Amino acid sequence: MMCSGGFSKTYIPEIPGYDEFCGIKQHSNVYREPDPFRGKTVIVVGASSTAGEIAAELGHTNYCKKVYMSIRRGVKTFRRCNVAASSRATVKFPSLSSTSPSDIILPDLNTYRNVAEYSKRPMGGMVNDDIADRIASGQVTIIPQIQKFTKTGVVLEGGYEIDGIDAVIFGTGYKIDYPTIDDSIVFDDTDQLKLYKYILPVDLEHHTMTVVGVMQAFLPTTWDTFELQARWSTALFSGRINIPDKSAMWRNILNRPRYSRFARKTPGCVVYQDELARDIGALPNVWKLLFTDPKLAYVFFFGRIIGSCYRLQGPAVWGGARNDMLTVWNQTEAKYKPPAVFKNVFFKYSYVFRNGFIIALSVAVFAYFSKSQWKIYLD
Description:
Layout: E1 24-27, E2 41-45, H1 49-60, E3 66-70, E4 75-78, H2 88-92, E5 103-105, E6 124-127, H3 131-136, E7 141-143, E8 146-149, E9 153-156, E10 161-163, E11 167-170, E12 195-196, E13 200-201, H4 222-237, H5 246-254, H6 269-280, H7 286-292, H8 294-302, H9 321-335, H10 345-348, H11 350-378
């Protein structure tokens, strides 16, 4: 299993004048502390969570003379400890979700000319508790993306120029790279992934290698997804799952969203996890759980999506999985009392869901047996 490569090669976008800029230029990968930037004017480029952390730290400590954060689209910020996490119910019915961004960050469209399209571009997401406060207090200033560098400053999209810049920190992510293998195994000629189910290289003669973790944004349960990819890989190596022929695998690849080596998007985390779990026999049947363990069925559908959901059956069953699923919200809720405002929709309306769940189950059972009785009567 190839499980590295996602964070090994830094990515810095090509911007005209980059080599001419006389100040400090570095990737966030080498940033360790704010002290080297004391008294300097700094631009943090990017809208990733890492970029937000660095900008907030530089602004919060007042080490810097001025801190700018350059973004190319709006950003939604979310709390680091988000109690209002996703459940299968909120994934299937998004209107039930109480998860919402804390703040939306945009450049000052009145100050920076010709950037009104920022409000129309798809927004990114950032996990950060502090950046909104730093912006509100004036410690961090949001600016549009950099169009080009000068010797001592930058020209922004829209033509606005800022001079006297001492340092630029690029929080612009990584380029997926596998230096120990031939890249053509993972990517095609256009740098698009060619992995069956985002795991298995299709061009190898023998299915003896898989790639785990190539997609870095399986939200909201990234590490649980990687674990399922690893379990899927071991099931393949041990012969417990069957692989279709090469043409069928290519059809599967082409029918899914295609991603490049720069991609950090998610192909639908829960749906994808359930697909892998189904392949290895680890996906519980919620309809069966309705009759055998209704409480667990309720938590499976309305509760938090965690790795224990896939340890109830199949290979490597964990005896504590059921209890973990039943108590995970209690563990989270205990940390957030008070205030009650942070409670998830699962807590706030649990009695409604529970009663509705019981009523729906009763109606379904009644309808099923009624239909059977009518069929017998008509026959």
